[in-house]
Amino acid sequence: MSQLELIPTQEPKTEVIEPDFGERKKERQIEVIAKNHEFAIAAYELESLISREDIQDKENAEIQEKLAVLPQPVRKRFEHALYNYFRQRDTMCKYEAEMEAIVEQQSNFGISRAEAREKLAKMMFSSLFGYYQAPLGKIKLEAREGYFLLTFENPKDYEAAVLAQRGKVVPGTDIEKSSGTYHHSVRLTMFEERYYGPVLMIRGDHKKEEIDNIIAHERQHFINHSVFALFGATEKYSDKRLHDPKEIERISGFQRIKDEVLAYLREGQTGSELKRSLHNELYIHLFKNLSPEDEKEARGILDKIAELLDHRSTTRASNEGRAIMVYQLAHVPFAEFPKWLQAIEEYYLDRFELLNKFDTDVSINEDPMVRNWYRMVTEGEYPPKYREYLASVIPKAEALVVQLKAIRKRARTIVFDQTLSPTEVGKKLQNVEAEYTNAKNQFSALYEPLKKNGILAISGGVPSSYEYGEEMGDGMNDESAYLTTVRDSLLEALDGYAQDEIDFISSYCDRSRT
Known about the structure:
Elements: H1 21-50, H2 61-68, H3 72-108, H4 113-129, E1 139-144, E2 147-152, H5 155-164, E3 180-188, E4 195-203, H6 208-227, H7 239-242, H8 245-267, H9 271-278, H10 292-311, H11 319-329, H12 337-355, H13 373-379, H14 384-415, H15 422-446, E5 451-452, E6 455-456, H16 472-476, H17 481-494, H18 499-513
Helix pairs in contact: 1-2, 1-11, 1-12, 3-4, 6-8, 8-11, 9-10, 10-12, 11-12, 12-14, 14-15
């Protein structure tokens, strides 16, 4: 029979299937996110490395090892960002050395180091105004990475310092409602060679956890400005757009808003919190140079971002997840945030849920490991009758914590293996999860003698004696005979309380001391 005879006399109806460009676009997004994941992980790990004091420059072997796995074009961007970071840190080291020399000189004249540091903080406070100004409360001054960090005990001092950077030095002329601010270029005349660089200012009348979150937010601004050079090292635009004045105004305006959004994402804010903050009068300045059309578009983008963050929060749950999200978005123009944010959440949803199995702590309460609960257990204070036993198990406990972190690292490598589907990842994790559970149970078993009715006997914090601005560790290590007696008496008294009462006392003390 010929081929022609096979053709039916009546042609069947056929359905024309149009190509699904939307689906292909989504697939392409996922491909890009998968590719960028290695870069995001590299950035997160590099960020951890460069914060270490023992690493002095980008030629460090560990840094070079991380850079070696990156494609050349991306590697150049990272090298540029690292150059910016270490240049800023080297500058800060010079000023830090000058401050230490002043403290040393003062100590030779019988002035305590704590008092000398307090004087330095007062000098810097005056330098913010350009003339002598006495603070109303204590100020804690720290030189970190590539910036100065000032934490103000008195909110009025914080308000005055922030407003002074805006040229408002007359008290009562304005009200400052923020809790923390990043200032990219502050001039300080108190040094031999004038300082002109980043300063973070923080209101100190918050709980420690809140202050840590505020510092994380403001530090992200430092990373964005000084390391990414406000995304010049991560965003790329055509020469045509960069020669159009209107486009330049739009790009710079959107980058300022993006800067704030990434800082809030790194801090762990919900979508509602981000929306409430950025639509607040505190951030009017972000929109002032935008055209009415661009401002409307920018606010609409913020609303979409907020909705997405409130709907899903997989990546927001941990510091690692937030960092990965920020580094995934660093190369994305602000106008494209909503579609990429949604794709990022979808990509990481299953993987982070699998990784969460390895984020429970070694404690009976299963708090996240990032809170370092084990440190409270191994380094906390206990009644004298427990101390000998505690000292004997601490080395074993610390070794198990190292083991748990190593297992978690192996699990992360499997979870983010781009060649495996989530189902395949789950299968490969089974043995690793069993190993993790075994090590976790070993840790818990070490502390059985410290438990009452299955609950840890003493977790009431560490009695300490310190003042605002001093290092907490100095107070904790105060071994005067009187304080030791008081401490032991308190701990022995606590041993007679039920666990929930101990936790209540600890919680109350934490609130009252902040």
